[in-house]
């Protein structure tokens, strides 16, 4: 009895200690749990999964309930026969919770860190910057090469380092290097030290929209992008945003502000934010904002140095070096314009002497004055456009010149995806289907400095090259030049018809029939006659206020239709169903919210339609497209098309050969019936983090040659039937961070030429069947990281396998695409 009493007293003292531990645990963790549940960042990162939070909350609630019951026994424990049971329960709860924290929560945190790193490593990397390229995040853009602008850079730096609020204008001719200098300023160490992450670099362009501008800054600040009711609402919310991020001084760079857009600057300068600086780059001096900084043409010595760099000339006495006097005469003809020096040097790089001589003669004789009449209005850009035209004329390959002119079909200051160009050029110029020759054209235009080529993710091998991470940008003056090339004839006869529709404005040729059959052309009545155009390419750009009020047009000859839109709702033109020769449809939404497409069923009338690319739209229910060969979906919502549609994809697109789905956040599984499309050769599902499984009947894709599943972070396993894809040449599962094993019989893929397992951090081993790759009749490339390389060390000396260790490259400039 005495022993029992002593043990009861000890248990009672321990009970108090255990109870106090439970109370302290609740007090410490309950507020943290509420913060996790309410955090906006949870939605941004597909955050700790709901079940993880529920499990953690269940543990805490269990402790809380037991603590409340135990408190009643705290003062009378010696009288209660049940307190030992509560003591044991509390201790058991505490042990279970400690185990949960030590094991499950730690693994959850590791998984989340891995997911964040996965996101960061899948960011599109922009290693080069065109004068018109936007940065993707708050912070300084990458420092470009800057020559002959040191004094002006120092003046701007002194102004920006001063305390207080101010606006400064950097002015100069088009192509003079204003954007280059502004970016150089932003990446100066002292400027970065003062402003930190509060450097915002935004391209404004010709027709700025205040609400879009405000949405851009919300996006750059990694905040949800609101839909503003009015411009006043946008200004109010934008000021509140900048006040929130304004713990450090703010530098706002407004690049490429055109005359007539001063009101935007005036509204922004009124923000009551301390240490708030605005730098404006413009061809106009905007003297109302004070004395501008004028960027003059380069002096001759700096111009020569820049030309040597772009022409890849070294200062040696090599026999293939052009005569220095010849170089100096050509440089003089460029009039100190960095853009002209860059483009003309690119056109002459590694060219024979006759090309150099011809360029010098062009600058020296009067033919340049005669050619200037080609350019309208005799603007300050006329001389520069004329020199750029001469560089363009040096292109002997007519297809390459046509390809350059096609770049004017897209909105200014926007990156153009290389797959879009490939889809167009393969169709228009009868190039090879795999895009090799189209890429040759891209590379040649880039080497001539007519475009800026952006490779956002380096690949370890060129086998089965994937172009979804490649973009091009074009300087606005070069874009103007491309458009001018297309306007040599009346719009009815042009090869490329470019139409810009903003708000209620319509061109004077716009025709729309009324109910009585009378046709109204802007400003007068005319007899009924459909507007017939001969263009092979039709490019239509609309703004966010466009009402889908289409004219009645008959583009019988069009093979490519490009629709550039910004509105949340968008209806395909009624004349689409008349485009009997249409082969390529490209719809790109440049707004901040996905656009709802209507009248998609009109495409069912087009028997020649072979390629469709949709970007940032909600894909509607599928219609029958029997001859479609390629479907590309980028940053789209796919639920209506793949889950809610009454038509299976195999019935809608029975002859599909290539399906590419990239950055589609709502894609959880592949569409039903996909594996019945036996014609499919390429299947690319990339950056779709919620994709959790592949269909088990994937082996039915008997002609599949490329299976790409990059950065599908929730994909945990691959079905064994993948090993039955007997024609598979490329399998890319890089950065599938949850994938724990490969199919046991993967070695049966005897046609495999490339296997990429880079970033598959959960892979703990390789199946023994990989030994069978030694029987291949060709060399197979295996792309992996250090961890993957270690797995292959267990299978040394397998013939015909070449292991390539990929370098880890982290870059954040892709976030402006993935966050949209």
TrEMBL record:
Any one GO MF annotation of this record: ADP binding
Q: Name one Pfam family in it.
A: NB-ARC
Q: Which residues form the Disease resistance R13L4/SHOC-2-like LRR domain?
A: 673-777
What SUPFAM superfamilies is this protein classified in? P-loop containing nucleoside triphosphate hydrolases, RNI-like
Q: What are the alphabetically sorted keywords of the record? A: Plant defense, Repeat
Alphabetical GO biological process terms = defense response
Q: Which InterPro entries match?
A: Apaf_helical, LRR_dom_sf, LRR_R13L4/SHOC2-like, NB-ARC, P-loop_NTPase, Powdery_mildew-R_dom, WH-like_DNA-bd_sf
Q: Where is the RPW8 domain?
A: 6-119
Domain NB-ARC span(s) in chain numbering: 160-285
Which family does the similarity line name? Belongs to the disease resistance NB-LRR family.
For this entry, the protein name equals: RPW8 domain-containing protein
Organism in which the protein naturally occurs? Trifolium subterraneum (Subterranean clover)
């Amino acid at each position: 009895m005495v022993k029992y009493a002593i043990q009861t007293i000890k248990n009672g003292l321990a009970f108090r200690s255990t109870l106090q531990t439970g109370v302290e645990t609740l007090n410490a963790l309950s507020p943290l749990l509420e913060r996790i549940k309410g955090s906006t960042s949870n939605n941004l990162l597909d955050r700790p999964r709901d079940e993880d939070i529920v499990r953690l909350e269940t543990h805490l609630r269990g402790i809380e309930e037991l603590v409340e019951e135990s408190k009643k026994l705290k003062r009378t424990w010696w009288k209660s026969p049940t307190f030992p049971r509560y003591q044991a329960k509390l201790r058991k709860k505490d042990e279970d919770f400690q185990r949960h924290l030590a094991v499950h929560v730690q693994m959850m945190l590791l998984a989340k860190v891995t997911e964040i790193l996965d996101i960061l490593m899948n960011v599109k990397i922009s290693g080069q910057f065109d004068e018109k390229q936007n940065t993707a995040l708050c912070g300084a853009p990458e420092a470009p090469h800057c020559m002959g602008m040191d004094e002006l850079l120092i003046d701007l730096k002194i102004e920006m380092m001063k305390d207080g609020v101010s606006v400064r204008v950097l002015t100069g001719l088009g192509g003079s290097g204003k954007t280059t200098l502004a970016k150089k300023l932003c990446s100066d160490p002292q400027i970065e030290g003062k402003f930190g992450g509060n450097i915002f670099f935004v391209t404004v362009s010709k027709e700025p929209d205040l609400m879009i501008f405000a949405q851009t800054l919300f996006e750059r600040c990694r905040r949800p992008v609101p839909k503003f009711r009015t411009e006043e609402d946008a200004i109010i919310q934008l000021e509140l945003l900048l006040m929130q991020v304004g713990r450090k001084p703010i530098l706002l760079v407004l690049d490429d502000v055109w005359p007539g857009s001063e009101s935007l600057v005036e509204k922004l300068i009124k923000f009551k934010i301390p240490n708030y600086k605005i730098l404006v780059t413009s061809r106009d001096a905007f003297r109302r904002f004070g004395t501008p900084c004028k960027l003059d043409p380069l002096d001759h010595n700096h111009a020569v140095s820049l030309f040597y760099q772009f022409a890849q000339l070294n200062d040696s006495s090599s026999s293939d070096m052009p005569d220095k006097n010849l170089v100096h005469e050509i440089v003089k003809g460029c009039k100190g314009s960095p853009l002209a020096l860059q483009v003309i040097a690119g056109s002459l790089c590694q060219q024979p002497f006759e090309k150099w001589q011809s360029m010098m003669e062009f600058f020296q004789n009067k033919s340049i004055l005669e050619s200037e009449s080609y350019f309208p209005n005799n603007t300050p850009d006329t001389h520069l456009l004329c020199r750029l035209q001469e560089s363009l004329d040096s292109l002997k390959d007519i297809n390459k010149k046509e390809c350059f002119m096609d770049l004017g079909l897209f909105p200014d200051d926007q990156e153009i995806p290389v797959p879009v160009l490939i889809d167009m050029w393969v169709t228009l110029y009868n190039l090879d289907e795999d895009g090799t020759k189209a890429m040759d054209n891209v590379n040649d235009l880039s080497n001539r400095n007519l475009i800026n080529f952006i490779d956002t993710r380096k690949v370890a091998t060129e086998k089965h090259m994937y172009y979804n991470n490649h973009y091009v940008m074009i300087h606005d003056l070069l874009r103007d030049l491309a458009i001018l090339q297309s306007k040599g004839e009346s719009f009815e006869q042009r090869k490329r018809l470019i139409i810009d529709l903003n708000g209620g404005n319509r061109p004077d040729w716009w025709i729309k029939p009324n109910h009585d059959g009378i046709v109204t052309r802007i400003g007068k009545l005319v007899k009924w006659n459909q507007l017939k155009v001969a263009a092979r390419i039709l490019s239509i750009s609309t703004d966010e206020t466009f009402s889908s009020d289409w004219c009645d047009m008959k583009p019988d000859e069009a093979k490519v239709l490009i629709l550039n839109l910004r509105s949340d709702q968008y209806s395909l033109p009624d004349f689409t169903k008349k485009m009997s020769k249409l082969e390529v449809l490209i719809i790109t939404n440049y707004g901040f919210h996905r656009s709802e497409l209507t009248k998609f069923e009109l495409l069912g009338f087009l028997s020649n339609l072979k390629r469709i690319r949709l970007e940032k739209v909600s894909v509607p229910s599928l219609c029958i497209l029997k001859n479609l060969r390629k479907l590309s979906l980028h940053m789209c919502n796919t639920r209506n098309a793949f889950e809610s549609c009454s038509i299976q994809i195999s019935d809608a697109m029975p002859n599909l050969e290539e399906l590419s789905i990239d950055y589609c956040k709502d894609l959880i599984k592949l569409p039903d019936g996909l594996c019945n499309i036996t014609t499919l050769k390429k299947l690319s599902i990339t950056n779709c983090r919620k994709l959790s499984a592949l269909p088990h009947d994937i082996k039915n894709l008997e002609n599949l040659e490329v299976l790409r599943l990059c950065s599908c972070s929730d994909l945990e396993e691959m079905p064994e039937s993948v090993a039955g894809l007997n024609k598979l040449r490329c399998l890319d599962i890089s950065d599938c961070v949850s994938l724990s094993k490969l199919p046991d019989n993967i070695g049966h893929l005897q046609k495999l030429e490339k296997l990429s397992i880079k970033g598959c951090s959960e892979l703990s081993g390789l199946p023994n069947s990989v030994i069978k790759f030694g029987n291949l009749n060709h060399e197979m490339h295996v792309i992996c990281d250090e961890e993957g390389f270690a797995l292959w060390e267990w299978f040394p000396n397998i013939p015909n396998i070449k292991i390539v260790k990929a370098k880890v490259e982290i870059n954040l400039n892709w976030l402006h695409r993935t966050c949209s």
